[in-house]
Amino acid sequence: MADIMDTLMQEAQKISSSAYAPYSKFRVGAALLCEDGTIVKGVNVENRSFGLTTCAERNAVTAAVMMGHRKFTALAISTPDSAEPVGPCGACRQVLGEFMKADAPVRFAGSGPQQVNTTIGSLLPMDSLHELRNK
Ligand code: THU
């Protein structure tokens, strides 16, 4: 899993330059690993009606689901606009939890050397409605 996490992080870093973030100037890239090995990426897309902004992580999920994927086994998130690692927002944690098992690895990084390695279960503890989760 170590190598694939490095690959995912490289993909997240590369795609972050495609973010549309003219308001916050905070670009984010996400790379999801699908069960069959496909990597699907996403960036944040902002809007002048600020509430319509969508995060990189949810855009990656939407793209992957649209392509027919339903299970994701790992995720990396990268932003060049913070020295510190930036983890997924609460809304994205809930959406990711729909398609990822609790032990699925998540790595996030900023422009500095620090990287956080965790799991979706740690980011979304006591996952409510887990009994309704898509198996
Ligand atoms: N953002 C993401 O895309 N993912 C995160 O994990 C944190 C925040 C975006 C939303 C908004 O476009 C900008 O970063 C500032 O919050």
What characteristics describe this protein?
135 residues; alpha+beta; 5-stranded mixed sheet; 4 helices; 5 strands; 29% helix; globular; binds tetrahydrodeoxyuridine
Verbal overview:
This protein is 29% helix and 21% strand. The protein has four helices and five strands; from the N terminus they run αββαβαββα. A hairpin with a 5-residue loop joins β4 and β5 (115-119). The model has no long low-confidence stretch (mean pLDDT 96). The protein is globular, with a radius of gyration of 14 Å. The protein has 135 residues and is an alpha+beta fold. It has a five-stranded mixed sheet with strand order 2-1-3-4-5. The longest helix has 14 residues, at 2-15. The structure holds tetrahydrodeoxyuridine (THU).
Distance between the termini: 22 Å
The dominant shape is: globular
As a percent range, the share of helical residues equals: 25-40%
How do the strands line up in the largest sheet?
Answer: 2-1-3-4-5
Mean pLDDT: 96
Main β sheet profile: 5 strands, mixed
Number of strands: 5
Low-pLDDT residue spans:
none
Supply Rg.
14 Å
The H/E string reads HEEHEHEEH
Question: What's the number of helices?
Answer: 4
Proportion of residues in extended strands: 15-25%
Give every kind of bound small molecule, once each. Answer: tetrahydrodeoxyuridine
Structural class: alpha+beta
